[in-house]
Amino acid sequence: MQEDWNAEAARFDEQPDHGLHDGLVREAWTLVLQEALPAPPARVLDVGCGTGSVSVLLAELGHRVQGIDIAPRMLEQAAAKAKRRGVEVAFLEGDASRPAVKGPFDVVLCRHVLWALPDVSAVLDRWTTLLVPGGLLVLIEGRWHTGAGWRSDDLLPLVRAATSTAVLRPLVDPDLWGGPIEDERYLIIATAGKEPPFRTGTGDR
């Protein structure tokens, strides 16, 4: 798996939602993340951070961010990106499914990674142990036209089994993806412990 993702590193940011180079795409993701996360500074773990686009964006918003990824070439790009943007992010090479990090965190965030991990129920359980009581598990996932990914109806019950509450929000704004989409893409915000979710909004279920 490490070799596969290393090989993807050079062209990974060519996708608009990966590189966040386009101003409209970056603004759209900024709004989504601001609505999903607590007010900064929160301590955020970005699991499977890839080239660090989301990690860097969160750091620019004032959060204290640590990113972990299995691919060192991805992390090289992530570190360079943070330096260019003038923010500090602690990037660590490691297995996103078993993060060897020191918590607790206010937020564990994962974008487009769960589909590539085995035993998702166990992964979700491990991630929630890294959260403070009432901390947030923020998952950005989808079932893409390629056939990869998770349908929300399949993933949401697993998330609810690992957390106290979970809400689902579709991510249909074409600005998020650099154009219109025809597949399913969504955000799940789940809460560890007994506290209610940080926010809910239109489209929650």
UniProtKB/TrEMBL annotation:
The Methyltransferase type domain, residue ranges: 45-139
Keywords noted in UniProt: Methyltransferase, S-adenosyl-L-methionine, Transferase
Keyword Isomerase: no
Protein name: Class I SAM-dependent methyltransferase
CDD domains in UniProt: AdoMet_MTases (cd02440)
One Gene Ontology molecular-function label: methyltransferase activity
Pfam family for this entry, one: Methyltransf_11
Lineage, top ranks: Bacteria, Bacillati, Actinomycetota, Actinomycetes, Pseudonocardiales
GO biological process: methylation
Organism field: Pseudonocardia xinjiangensis
Transmembrane segments: none
